Every structure is written in C-alpha cells, then in structure tokens.
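W.,

You were right to be curious about this one. When I first looked at the sequence I had no strong expectations either way, so I just let the prediction run and decided to look at it fresh. Below is the sequence, 185 residues in total, followed by the output.
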Amino acid sequence: MAKVIITGTPGSGKSTITSKLKEYKIYNIGTEMLKHISDKSISRDELRSKVKYHEILKVRKAVFDDLEKLKGNIIIDTHTSVKTGKRYIPGFSKADLSVLKDVKAIIYIDALAVDILLRRIGDRTRQREDETAEEIEEHRSVNMGLASYYAVYLGVPLYIIKNKQDRLDEIKKEIENVLSELFSE
C-alpha cells in the first residue's frame, strides 16, 4: 500500500487531472470533509467561510483517520492551501502530516496565474473569490513553499508538473508515468 499526494492551487487543474486517472483510487479531501460536516446544506466552496476553524480541524482529523483505514494504492487530491480573504490555511496541518503513512511523493500541479484565472472564470460550477492574476501568483508562491515543507516533513520527493492550457492528455500521461514508477517501488 502506498499514497501519493496530488496538490496545487485551486484552478490549477489537479481535480480535472485526477478524475482522468480511472485506474487509481482517488481520495479527495474536500469531498470527504463535506461528508463529515453536520450542516448538509453547505457546499465545498462554503466550507472555508461558513464553518468555524475549530470544527474544520475536527473534520480534517476524521477525514485523515478514515484515509489511513483504506487499503491499496491511493492518490490524495487536495489543495496545498485554501485562501480566505488575506488568510492562507494550509491544506495539511502538522497533525495531518503526522498520521499519514506510506506516502511516496507529492505531485504539485502548477499552472500560470493567468491560466488559473481563466479556468476559474470559466468554471461556473464553483464559487470562488474574485481575484486578480497578481493575487493568484501570490497564492502559487505560498503553495510552493508549503508543498516543499510537506515534502521535507514527510521525507519524500516533490514533483512539480506544469499544467499548460490544452495539454491535458500530455499532463495525464506524464503523471501516469510518475505514478507507475512510484507505486512499483
């Protein structure tokens, strides 16, 4: 059994890419958090604004406890951080990282700020704060630092994969090659 974390800035394309990896078990942290929230009327995008931070921490603990009970090779799909106003909330707390076992690597899906902005504008299924390319660039910078920290803490390699516009098949193949290598070790 092994785990690989696929993470990135919201709008970088990580969930789109993971949805194409049909041969792998995908564990989406945001989706799993929704299952543990008592107020079932809250959407994924409202988690950061309508749920108190102390409740989020309890829910995350339950989600990570559930994750550790799963068998087989698992891809963890989550944000590197979540931005609320001027505040960045790490996607993994130290407590989250300390319970994760058998993580082989972190794959950070990156995209240009302008590409992320265009994806966010075009995605009518999600409710995201209006941002500029400059604010997204700041978020990417914060996320690169956090992804590096997560990799150091876990003692695993960090892969950075650039998700360029209209190159989904190429990106998927690149990630599949990395996953195949990691899961065969």
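Here's what jumped out at me. The chain has eight helices and seven strands. And, maybe more interesting for your project: The first helix runs from residue 14 to 19.

Coffee later to discuss?

I.
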